[in-house]
Amino acid sequence: MTRSVRGEVVASTFDEPATRHVQVAEMVIEKAKRLVEHKRDVVILLDSITRLARAYNTVQPASGKVLTGGVDANALQKPKRFFGAARNIEEGGSLTAKDVDPAQAAIQHGRP
């Protein structure tokens, strides 16, 4: 038995600059919002919220408030909005955003 799901894969590789990672993330979330407005159900699987926050940390101006791990407080605002965009619209579609960081999944399942 074969199963398939219609979908689109959008990626930016580790060797691309932080500006590209940010550009791709913003393009994806905006497209997802438009699809939801047109009564489509959308699921976004993000490889790592941490990597996205670090990309924003690189490209955004510093606020002067540095959090644990060296991330500026401003760098977390856009990733928070990324996941905050998740919604279910009455008479419309839905948007689900999930962080699927493989390293965290391995730790949770007791693998190094």
Provide a descriptive summary of the structure in words:
The protein has 112 residues and is of the alpha+beta class. The chain has a single domain, classed as P-loop containing nucleotide triphosphate hydrolases (Rossmann fold). Helices cover 41% and strands 12% of the residues. The protein contains 4 helices and 3 strands; from the N terminus they run H-E-H-H-E-E-H. It has helices at 18-37, 49-59, 77-84, 102-108, and strands at 41-46, 87-88, 94-99. The protein has a 3-stranded mixed β-sheet with strand order 1-3-2, covered by helices on one side. Strand 2 and strand 3 (94-99) form a beta hairpin. Helix 1 crosses helix 2. The mean pLDDT is 85. InterPro entries: ATPase_F1/V1/A1_a/bsu_nucl-bd, P-loop_NTPase, Term_rho. One of its GO terms (biological process) is DNA-templated transcription termination. GO terms for molecular function: ATP binding; ATP-dependent activity, acting on RNA; RNA binding. This is ATPase F1/V1/A1 complex alpha/beta subunit nucleotide-binding domain-containing protein. It comes from Candidatus Accumulibacter phosphatis.
Quick tags:
Rossmann fold; 4 helices; single chain; 3-stranded mixed beta sheet; alpha+beta; globular; about 10% strand; P-loop_NTPase; ATP-dependent activity, acting on RNA; about 110 residues; about 40% helix
Structural class: alpha+beta
C-alpha Rg (nearest Å)? 16 Å
The sequence of SSEs as H and E is HEHHEEH
Biggest sheet record:
3 strands, mixed
CATH class assignment = Alpha Beta
Instruction: Determine the strand fraction and express it as a percent band.
Output: 5-15%
Principal-axis shape:
globular
Q: Largest sheet, order of strands side by side? A: 1-3-2
Mean pLDDT: 85
Please give the CATH architecture: 3-Layer(aba) Sandwich
Number of helices: 4
Helix content: 40-55%
Low-confidence stretches: none
CATH topology, anyone? Answer: Rossmann fold
The number of domains: 1
CATH superfamily: P-loop containing nucleotide triphosphate hydrolases
Overall number of strands: 3
Q: Cα distance, first to last residue?
A: 33 Å
Protein name: ATPase F1/V1/A1 complex alpha/beta subunit nucleotide-binding domain-containing protein
Domain ATPase F1/V1/A1 complex alpha/beta subunit nucleotide-binding: 9-97
Pfam families: ATP-synt_ab
GO molecular function, one term: ATP binding
